[in-house]
C-alpha cells in the first residue's frame, strides 16, 4: 500500500470496485436484421451479437438490449426509423435530428458523443474487418491463435457483425482518453458471442405485472425520486435473495445444467458441502473489475489483496466441488468447477532470493525506539499503545505512535530534540526523529533497490495474469452462477418447489401450480394448467366473479414459466413446460401525457405490439382488455384480437385471456383452439357469493344482485349500496333500450414540486437589502415585505453579520480549510502572523538543485506553513510521478531533503532549512493556533445565541427563492393570479393543463361550479382519447397550484378554498394484502365517500370499469347518489365515465350536471374531437368510432369495418 493509502479512506476504493456496470453499445440495423457489439467498462469484456430478425416499428430486440445494458454511449447505423427509435430510447427531444449526430460531427466531441450515427456503407467493411483482427485481446499466445479463434467463434460472414464491431472499436480509439483516462489504450479481457435468439423476450410492463422486479419509492418525502434511494418491493427478486439472473433462456442444454445444479444442491448428502461453499463464495469477487484497477494503479495493495482473495477462494470452491462429486457425475455448474481445477495452470509466483535478502536487511534495521525519543513522545502522547519504527513508501523510516488521543499536545521540547510531526491516519501518528534519519541514510539505497525489484516482479505478474485472464474469468463466472443457484435451491427447498422438465414441444402441463409470491402471505389453492396443440386449447378464456383470482391465475402461469426459463425450480407438484421465445402481458394500464397517449390508446398500442410480434412459441397473458371503453367497442376489440390468434391454428401462441364479457367465445367466428374456464363459486345460505379459487372448465353464469351484495359487504363505508337499491338500479338498466356501456381507467400524471436552496448569512442580508431598496415601507408584497422589515428590526442579526465579516477571513479559510481571523481584528495576533510571514524566505539554491533532480520540470518551489507539520517546501509540478534513481535518492538522503506527502500536483518535502525555521518559530505558530481557536469559540457562542432569528431570515429567503421560480414559470406560460375566497366553488376561464401545454398546443376549457348553479357534481361522457382524463387532471392541478400560492394556467380563476383533494384515477393491486385491482378501487372510493366534506374536491375517472357493466354502473350510481343527497353540503366532484345513462339511473339528481367534449364525423366517417367542453351528454357510439380506433393502431389488421359491423350486429342480436 502506498503513502496515499495510509491517509486515504478506503470507502472510495470500495465504491470504485463495486460500481454499477457501464456499457458502450454499437447497433447496426438493415432490412429488418439487427446486429450489435457492446463493451463492459468495468470487466473489459467485449460481446458480439450475431444477426437476428428485429421487425419495425416495435424493434423488440433493440428494446431488450437497452433494457439489459442501459448504455452510457450508443453508436448506431441504419434506416431513419431505426435511428429515431434509438433517439426515443435515449430520451432525445422530438426536434432532435439524427444528422446532427453524424460521426464526422460528434465523434471527437466529448459533450455530444454519447450518441454517434455511422453511415451504412460497404466501403467501411475492409477497415472494420482490419480493426476487429487488430484488437488486443488477453489470453492469446500469438496473432495466429487469435485469428483462429475469431474465424472459428465469431460470425465474420455477417456484414452487420463486422460493421457494429468496427464502429465500436473506432469510437473507443477516438474517445478512450475521456472514457478511461487511467489507461493508455483499450483493454479487452475477453471477446465472446452474445446470442439473442435463445433469450426469452419480456418487456418492462410484464416484469412489473408479474412482480418479478418491484421497486418502492423511499418512504421519506425528501428522499422520494432521488436515484439510488428506491427500496426493493415485494417481488420474485426479493424472494430469491436478490439473485441477479441473466435474461431467461429457451436453450434446453443451458436449462438442464441449471436444474442439475439445483438438484445437486438440494441433495441431503451435499448439505455440508453447500454450507462450506456458501462461506467461501462470500469472498469471491469479480476479478475483471479488480484487475482493471490493478492495471490503472498497480501500487494499490488493496486491489492485489482482493484479487488474491478471489483467486484463492475460487480454487477452494473448485476443490470442494471436486471432492464432493464423481468425475462423470452430471451436476451442472458444480461439474464445471470440478473440472476447472484439473486444467488450470499454477499461477503462484516464484521465490526471489535476492529480494528476500534485501528485505531481511531492512527488517533487521528496525531496532527499538531509543528511550530518550520515547520520553519526548510521552510529552506529546501521555497515553499511547505502541511506539515503533516503521518503513513508509517514499518517506523512509518513521516512528509510528498508535494512540487514542484525538489531538496531541505540543511543547518546545519536540522542536529542540528533532522530533517532527509528519501526518496521521485515524489513531496512528507518524513522526521523524534523528534515529529515523540515520536509518534512512544507511539503508535508503537498499530500499530503492527493493522498490525497483518489486516493480519489475509486479509487471511480470500482470503480464502472466493477463495471459491467463480468460480462464480465470471462467472460474469466477462459474462461482457467481453457483452462488445464484445455491440461493435458488434454498428457496426451492423452503417453499417446497419441485423440479420440472423443459421440452421443445409446445405446451404447458402444470399440476398443482401455485403463485410463488402469494403463498408467502397466505395458504394458496393450487391449480392445474393443461395446454397443448393436441388438445386444441392453445387460447384460454377465463371468466369469473370479481376478486376470485383471475389475475392471480394469469400471473401464476407467467411466474412459473419465467422461473423455468431462468433455470429455477417452480412452485408446483410437477411441470412440463415447452420453451417459449417471449412472454407478453397486458395486465397493468398506464398513460403517457407527454406523448399524448391515454390509457385506452396505451392498451391498444400494447395489444398491437403483441399481435404483431408474437409467434407460435410465445406466451400471452391478457387481463380485462377492452374495459377502457364502451361495451360494444371493448367487446369488438377483444373478439378481433382473439380471432387473429385463433386463425393461426396449431401455429397460434399460448394465450390466456381474462374478461367479464361472458359471451366472448359466442361472438368469435373462428373458435379453433379456444377453451373456456372459470373459477368455482357458489352462493351460501345468506346469499353471499363464495369462491373456492379452484379452476374448472366452463363459463361463469350471468351475474345478479347477490354478487353485488357480496361486493358491498367488503366495503363497509359504502352504506348507500343496499340490496334494495341495487335491485332497483338493475331493473332500471334492464328496462332501458340503450346498450350498457363499460368504462375507461386512466392513470394520473404524478406532479413533483420541490425546492432547495442554502443561503449564507452574507447573501441573506443582501437579499434583505434588495427587498428594502425596492419596496415602500407599507407596501403589501408578501415574503418580500417580511425580508424588507427583517433588516430594520433585527439589530442583533446585523451585529452577527458584521461580526462574521470583520472577524473571519472567509476566502483564505476556504483555501486552507481552517478558521482564519481577518487582519486588524486582534493586534497581538497580527504581530505574530507578521513574524511568521517574514520568516518564509526563499528556498536556498543548493536545495533547489536537489529538487531539480527529483522534478526536472516544476512551476514553483517555496516555503509554506502546513498545520501540525510546520514549515515545509512545497513543489508544484505537473509530473504524475517524480523521477526516482540511485543518484537522486542518494543526493536527497545526504542533503536531508525528505518526502512527506502530496496533494494532486503539489509535493511536500522537509529540508534542513525547514527544521531551522520550525525550531525558531514553532512556539509562535502554536500561540497563533490557540488564539484563533479561542476567537472561533467565542464567535460560535455569539451566533448560537442569535440562531433562531438567523434561521427565520434564511427560511424566508428559501421561500422567496421558491416563489421567484414560480414567478418565472408564470411569466413564461402566461399564468394568472387566482382569486381565492371562502365561498365554495370554481370559476375558471380558459384553464389549461400545466404539463400538457409543455408538449403541444392545448385547447383551453372553462370550469364553472358553485352551489348556486346547482352543479356541484359533474358527469363527463366523451369518446375515447378525447381528453376526459386530461380535463380532470387539469382541474386538480389548477386547484393544487392555487393552494400552494402559485399563479395558475388560465385566463382568470376564482377558486374557493378546499380542505382536501381526492382522486380515483390510478388502478392497482396488492397481492401481499390479498387485494385485487377491483377491490383496491372499491376501498379507495369508500375512503373518499367516508372522509369527504363539503370543502373537498373529488376527481373520479372511470370508476366501475373493473367488473361487469351492471355491477360497475350500480356502484357508480350509488356513489354519485350518496354525494348528491348531501345537497348544498355536497363536495365539488367530477366523474368521467362511459356509462352514458348514469344520470338517468340516479334517483337523486340534485346538484348533477352533464358535460361532454365536442366531436363530429368528417367526410371519411372518422371521428374528430375539438377537445372543447360543452354541456350535454355524449350520444350513443357506433362502428364509425370503432373505425377511428382501428386507424390509430395499424398493426391490428383483423379489425376491419366489415368485421366490426358483423360483431356489433351479433352483439345487438
TrEMBL record:
- What Pfam families does this protein's entry cite? MutS_III (PF05192), MutS_V (PF00488)
Task: List GO BP terms, alphabetically.
Answer: chiasma assembly; mismatch repair
* GO terms assigned for molecular function: ATP binding; ATP-dependent DNA damage sensor activity; mismatched DNA binding
Domain DNA mismatch repair proteins mutS family: from-to ranges? 618-634, 1096-1112
Note the PROSITE patterns from the entry: DNA_MISMATCH_REPAIR_2 (PS00486)
Per UniProt, the keywords (alphabetical) are: ATP-binding, DNA-binding, Nucleotide-binding
User: Could you give one GO CC term from the UniProt record?
Assistant: nucleus
Family membership noted in the UniProt record: Belongs to the DNA mismatch repair MutS family.
Q: What is this protein called?
A: Putative mismatch repair atpase msh5 muts family
Q: Organism source for this protein? A: Lutzomyia longipalpis (Sand fly)
Amino acid at each position: 500500500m502506498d503513502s496515499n493509502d495510509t491517509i486515504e479512506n478506503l470507502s472510495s476504493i470500495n465504491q470504485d470496485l463495486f460500481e454499477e456496470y457501464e456499457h458502450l453499445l454499437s447497433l447496426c440495423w438493415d432490412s429488418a436484421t439487427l446486429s450489435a457489439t457492446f463493451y463492459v467498462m468495468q470487466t473489459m469484456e467485449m460481446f458480439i451479437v450475431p444477426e437476428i430478425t428485429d421487425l419495425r416499428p416495435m424493434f423488440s430486440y433493440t428494446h431488450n438490449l437497452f433494457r439489459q445494458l442501459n448504455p452510457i454511449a450508443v453508436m448506431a447505423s441504419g434506416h431513419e426509423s431505426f435511428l429515431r427509435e434509438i433517439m426515443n430510447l435515449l430520451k432525445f427531444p422530438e426536434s432532435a435530428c439524427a444528422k446532427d449526430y453524424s460521426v464526422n460531427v460528434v465523434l471527437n466531441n466529448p459533450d455530444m458523443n454519447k450518441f454517434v450515427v455511422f453511415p451504412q456503407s460497404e466501403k467501411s467493411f475492409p477497415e472494420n474487418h482490419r480493426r476487429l483482427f487488430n484488437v488486443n485481446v488477453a489470453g492469446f499466445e500469438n496473432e495466429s491463435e487469435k485469428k483462429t479463434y475469431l474465424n472459428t467463434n465469431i460470425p465474420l460472414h455477417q456484414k452487420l457483425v463486422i460493421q457494429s464491431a468496427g464502429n465500436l472499436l473506432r469510437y473507443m480509439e477516438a474517445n478512450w482518453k475521456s472514457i478511461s483516462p487511467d489507461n493508455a489504450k483499450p483493454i479487452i479481457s475477453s471477446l465472446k458471442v452474445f446470442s439473442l435468439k435463445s433469450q426469452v423476450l419480456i418487456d418492462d410492463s410484464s416484469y412489473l405485472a408479474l412482480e418479478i422486479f418491484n421497486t418502492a419509492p423511499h418512504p421519506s418525502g425528501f428522499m422520494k425520486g432521488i436515484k439510488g434511494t428506491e427500496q426493493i418491493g415485494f417481488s420474485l427478486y426479493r424472494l430469491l435473495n436478490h439473485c441477479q439472473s441473466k435474461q431467461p433462456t429457451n436453450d434446453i442444454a443451458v436449462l438442464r445444467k441449471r436444474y442439475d445444479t439445483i438438484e445437486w444442491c438440494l441433495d441431503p448428502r451435499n448439505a455440508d458441502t453447500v454450507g462450506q461453499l456458501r462461506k467461501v463464495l462470500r469472498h469471491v469477487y469479480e476479478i475483471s473489475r479488480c484487475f482493471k484497477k490493478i492495471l490503472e494503479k498497480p501500487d494499490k495493495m488493496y486491489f492485489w489483496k482482493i484479487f488474491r482473495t478471489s483467486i484463492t477462494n475460487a480454487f477452494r470452491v473448485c476443490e470442494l466441488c471436486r471432492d464432493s462429486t464423481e468425475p462423470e457425475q452430471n451436476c451442472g455448474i458444480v461439474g464445471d468447477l470440478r473440472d476447472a481445477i484439473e486444467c488450470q495452470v499454477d499461477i503462484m509466483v516464484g521465490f526471489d532470493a535476492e529480494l528476500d535478502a534485501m528485505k531481511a536487511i531492512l527488517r533487521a534495521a528496525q531496532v527499538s525506539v531509543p528511550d530518550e525519543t520515547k520520553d519526548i513522545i510521552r510529552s506529546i502522547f501521555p497515553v499511547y499503545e505502541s511506539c515503533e519504527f516503521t518503513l513508509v513508501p517514499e518517506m523512509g523510516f518513521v516512528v509510528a505512535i498508535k494512540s487514542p488521543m484525538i489531538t496531541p499536545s505540543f511543547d518546545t521540547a519536540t522542536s529542540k530534540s528533532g522530533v517532527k510531526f509528519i501526518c496521521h491516519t485515524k489513531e496512528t501518528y507518524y513522526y521523524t526523529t534523528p534515529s529515523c534519519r540515520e536509518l534512512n541514510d544507511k539503508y535508503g539505497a537498499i530500499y530503492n533497490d527493493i522498490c525497483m525489484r518489486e516493480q519489475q516482479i509486479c509487471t511480470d505478474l500482470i503480464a502472466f495474469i493477463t495471459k491467463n485472464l480468460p480462464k480465470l474469468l471462467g472460474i469466477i463466472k462459474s462461482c457467481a452462477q453457483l452462488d445464484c443457484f445455491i440461493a435458488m435451491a434454498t428457496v426451492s427447498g423452503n417453499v417446497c418447489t419441485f423440479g420440472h422438465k423443459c421440452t421443445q414441444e409446445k405446451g404447458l402441463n402444470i399440476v398443482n401450480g401455485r403463485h410463488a409470491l402469494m403463498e408467502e402471505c397466505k395458504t394458496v389453492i393450487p391449480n392445474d394448467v393443461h395446454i397443448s396443440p393436441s388438445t386444441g386449447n392453445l387460447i384460454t378464456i377465463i371468466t369469473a366473479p370479481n376478486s376470485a383470482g383471475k389475475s392471480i391465475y394469469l400471473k401464476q402461469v407467467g411466474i412459473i414459466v419465467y422461473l423455468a426459463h431462468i433455470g429455477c425450480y417452480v412452485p408446483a407438484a410437477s411441470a412440463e413446460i415447452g420453451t417459449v421465445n417471449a412472454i407478453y402481458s397486458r395486465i397493468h394500464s398506464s398513460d403517457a401525457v407527454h406523448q399524448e397517449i391515454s390509457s385506452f390508446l396505451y392498451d391498444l398500442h400494447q395489444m398491437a405490439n403483441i399481435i404483431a410480434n408474437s409467434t407460435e412459441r410465445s406466451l400471452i397473458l391478457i387481463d380485462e382488455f377492452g374495459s377502457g371503453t364502451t361495451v360494444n367497442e371493448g367487446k369488438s376489440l377483444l373478439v378481433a384480437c382473439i380471432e387473429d390468434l385463433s386463425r393461426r391454428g396449431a401455429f397460434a401462441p399460448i394465450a390466456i385471456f381474462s374478461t367479464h364479457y361472458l359471451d366472448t367465445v359466442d361472438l368469435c367466428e373462428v373458435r379453433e383452439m379456444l377453451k373456456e374456464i372459470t373459477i368455482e363459486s357458489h352462493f351460501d345460505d345468506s346469499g353471499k357469493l363464495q369462491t373456492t379459487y379452484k379452476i374448472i372448465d366452463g363459463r361463469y353464469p350471468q351475474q345478479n344482485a347477490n354478487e353485488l351484495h357480496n361486493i358491498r359487504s367488503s366495503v363497509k363505508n359504502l352504506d348507500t349500496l343496499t340490496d334494495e337499491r341495487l335491485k332497483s338500479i338493475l331493473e332500471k338498466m334492464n328496462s332501458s333500450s340503450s346498450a350498457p356501456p363499460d368504462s375507461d381507467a386512466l392513470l394520473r400524471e404524478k406532479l413533483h414540486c420541490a425546492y432547495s436552496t442554502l443561503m449564507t448569512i452574507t447573501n441573506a442580508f443582501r437579499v434583505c437589502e434588495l427587498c428594502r431598496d425596492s419596496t415602500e415601507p407599507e407596501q403589501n408584497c408578501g415574503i418580500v415585505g417580511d425580508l424588507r422589515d427583517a433588516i430594520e428590526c433585527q439589530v442583533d442579526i446585523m451585529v452577527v453579520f458584521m461580526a462574521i465579516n470583520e472577524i473571519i477571513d472567509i476566502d483564505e479559510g476556504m483555501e486552507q480549510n481552517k478558521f482564519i481571523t481577518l487582519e486588524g481584528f486582534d493586534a497581538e495576533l497580527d504581530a505574530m502572523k507578521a513574524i511568521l510571514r517574514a520568516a518564509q524566505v526563499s528556498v536556498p539554491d543548493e536545495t533547489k538543485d536537489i529538487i531539480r533532480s527529483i522534478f526536472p520540470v516544476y512551476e514553483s518551489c517555496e516555503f509554506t506553513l502546513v498545520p501540525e507539520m510546520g514549515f515545509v517546501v512545497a513543489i508544484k509540478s505537473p509530473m504524475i510521478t517524480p523521477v526516482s534513481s540511485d543518484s537522486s535518492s542518494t543526493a536527497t538522503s545526504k542533503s536531508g531533503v525528505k518526502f512527506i506527502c502530496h496533494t494532486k500536483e503539489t509535493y511536500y518535502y522537509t529540508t534542513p532549512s525547514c527544521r531551522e525555521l520550525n525550531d525558531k518559530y514553532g512556539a509562535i505558530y502554536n500561540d497563533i493556533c490557540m488564539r484563533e481557536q479561542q476567537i472561533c469559540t467565542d464567535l460560535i457562542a455569539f451566533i448560537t445565541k442569535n440562531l433562531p432569528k438567523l434561521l427565520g431570515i434564511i427560511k424566508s429567503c428559501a421561500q422567496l427563492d421558491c416563489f421567484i421560480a414560480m414567478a418565472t414559470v408564470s411569466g413564461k406560460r402566461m399564468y394568472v393570479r387566482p382569486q381565492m375566497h371562502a365561498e365554495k366553488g370554481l370559476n375558471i376561464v380558459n384553464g389549461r393543463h400545466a404539463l400538457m401545454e409543455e408538449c403541444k398546443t392545448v385547447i383551453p376549457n372553462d370550469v364553472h361550479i358553485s352551489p348556486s348553479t346547482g352543479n356541484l357534481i359533474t358527469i363527463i361522457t366523451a369518446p375515447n382519447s378525447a381528453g376526459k382524463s386530461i380535463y380532470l387532471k387539469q382541474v386538480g392541478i389548477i386547484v393544487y397550484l392555487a393552494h400552494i400560492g402559485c399563479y395558475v394556467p388560465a385566463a382568470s380563476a376564482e377558486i374557493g378554498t378546499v380542505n382536501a383533494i381526492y382522486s380515483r384515477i390510478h388502478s392497482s393491486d396488492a397481492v401481499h394484502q390479498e387485494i385485487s385491482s377491483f377491490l383496491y378501487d372499491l376501498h379507495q372510493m369508500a375512503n373518499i365517500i367516508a372522509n369527504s366534506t363539503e370543502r373537498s374536491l373529488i376527481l373520479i375517472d372511470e370508476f366501475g370499469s373493473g367488473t361487469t357493466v351492471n355491477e360497475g354502473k350500480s356502484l357508480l350510481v350509488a356513489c354519485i347518489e350518496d354525494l348528491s343527497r348531501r345537497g348544498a353540503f355536497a363536495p365539488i366532484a367530477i366523474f368521467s365515465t362511459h356509462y352514458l345513462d348514469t344520470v338517468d339511473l340516479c334517483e337523486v339528481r340534485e346538484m348533477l350536471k352533464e358535460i361532454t367534449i365536442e366531436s363530429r364525423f368528417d367526410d371519411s366517417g372518422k371521428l374528430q374531437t375539438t377537445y372543447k367542453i360543452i354541456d350535454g351528454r355524449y350520444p350513443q357510439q357506433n362502428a364509425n368510432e370503432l373505425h377511428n380506433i382501428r386507424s390509430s393502431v395499424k398493426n391490428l389488421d383483423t379489425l376491419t369495418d366489415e368485421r366490426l359491423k358483423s360483431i356489433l350486429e351479433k352483439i345487438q342480436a
